[in-house]
Amino acid sequence: MLKMKPLRDKVVVQRMEEEEKKVGGIIIPDTAKEKPMQGKVIAVGPGALDKNGKRIPPDVKKGDRVLFGKYTGSEVTIDGDEYVIMDCSDIYAILE
């Protein structure tokens, strides 16, 4: 279990691996594959503060499957697991 509490409007996401597709029998090596742009929300900060000091709650919650930008956030490795820490605004959609 991840023991991390994001601050403000930060969100911790674990990338979801997409199914490997073989085209014409060619297997693409891991180093050449695109990073998945889908993930599962692992932790969410309490939200940003507006100019009046009022808390703005985040649009996502722990457990949501989300779609985000290819080069979004900062990648970190904790206890051997890889995560992406990003702003809540970097998440494009919640997948249902």
General description of the model:
It is a single chain. 0% of the residues lie in helices and 40% in strands. By secondary structure, the protein is an all-beta fold. The protein has one domain (10-16, 34-95): 10 Kd Chaperonin, Protein Cpn10, Chain O (Roll). Strand 6 and strand 7 form a beta hairpin. The protein starts with 9 loop residues before the first strand and ends with a strand.
**Major sheet details:** 6 strands, antiparallel
Label the overall shape.
globular
Helix % is under 10%
Runs in which pLDDT lies below 50 for 5 or more consecutive residues are none
Summarize the structure.
The chain is an all-beta fold and 96 residues long. It is built from no helices and eight strands. It has a single domain, classed as GroES chaperonin (10 Kd Chaperonin, Protein Cpn10, Chain O, Roll), CATH 2.30.33.
